[in-house]
Amino acid sequence: MKLRELFTPDVVNLDIQSENKDDILKELIGLLGMDEKSEAILFKTLKRRENLGSTGIGKGIAIPHCRSLVVNRLRLAYGRKPGGVDFKAIDGSPVYNFFLIVAPPLEVSNQYLPVLGKIAQFAKDPDVPGLLKEMKTPEDFLDLLEEKAP
Amino acid sequence: MNPQLMLLLEIQDLHLQRAALLDEPGLTKMETNDFHIDPVVAATALEERIEDLKAQLAPAVRQRCERGLPALGRMLVPVIGGVCYGCFVSIPTARSGEVNQELRACENCGRFIYVLP
Q1: Which residues have a Cβ under 8 Å from the Cβ of B53 and sit 6 or more positions away?
Q2: Do A70 and B116 touch (CB under 8 A)?
Q3: Total tally of structural domains belonging to chain A
Q4: Which residue ranges form the domains of chain B, and what is each CATH number?
Q5: The CATH number of the domain where A78 resides is what?
């Protein structure tokens, strides 16, 4: 399973407008195209996870993630905030890149953990933050995944 | 969506988070090593929040959850493609569309159901 295969251009936003943690979560959730009530529940669940400890893993990258009943398959989205935002990341640095992962309670293919692990590994590649910054189009993001997370 | 159903969804999602922290070894390891979470402390915080939310449930709903949970595992399950994911029995289509407007249970297994669009 390649990360590239789990993203489509419509779940990639290279110009996140929100200026704070809550609004960024909402903007990322919005990329999934769910109904309003499901979005509200998912926001609460993600917010609860953030309250336990930030998903900002350092180097300008955060991976908000949870399991939730409001999705029926693994859903992913990516957002980039060019100016960065305080996400209470573990290294205290601003976060520029957000990978949202939401999985249902039961998955036939059980991809949640492997995908979370792959994205964390991708984020640790020293070249990745710089390459994410240079992307011009959602397709560039997909190409980067193809190259760095085969 | 029915407010009690929304509460149940929130509660169920918190149960899932708690289970992910404590019962899925790979996730527990990642949450600890990559996200610097203490799973036991986090699970305790989630349990407190779950209790807060349970207190907001209507007495009859809460009673049903507390009586049913030990035997049924999850008290709220999704309905996907007209099938209850608690017992995998079909839910009549005519009723599926209205389920999220009121709190309904699967007639076969008794679990509360949430229809996924």
Answers
A1: B7, B10, B11, B14
A2: yes
A3: 1
A4: 3-115 (1.10.287.1490)
A5: 3.40.930.10
**Chain A residues 100-139 with a CB less than 8 Å from chain B:** 104-106, 112-113, 116-117, 120
Q: How far apart are CA B66 and CA B58, in angstroms?
A: 12
Q: Mutate which of A35, A41, A54 to disrupt the B interface (most B C-beta within 10 Å)?
A: A41
User: The complex's ipTM?
Assistant: 0.81
Q: Does A47 touch chain B (CB under 8 A)?
A: no
**CA separation, residue B65 to residues A121, B36, B59, B110 (Å):** 40, 33, 10, 10
pLDDT band at A16 (very low <50, low <70, confident <90, very high): very high
Note the pLDDT of residue A86: 94
Nearest neighbour of A41 by CB, restricted to B10, B24, B77 = B10
Low-confidence ranges of chain B (pLDDT < 70): 68-73, 93-99
Question: Do the beta carbons of residue A7 and residue A139 sit within 8 Å?
Answer: no
Domain range enclosing A29:
3-148
**Interface check B85 vs A, CB under 8 A:** yes
A30-73 pLDDT per residue, tens: 999 998 989 999 999 999 999 999 999 999 999 999 999 999 89
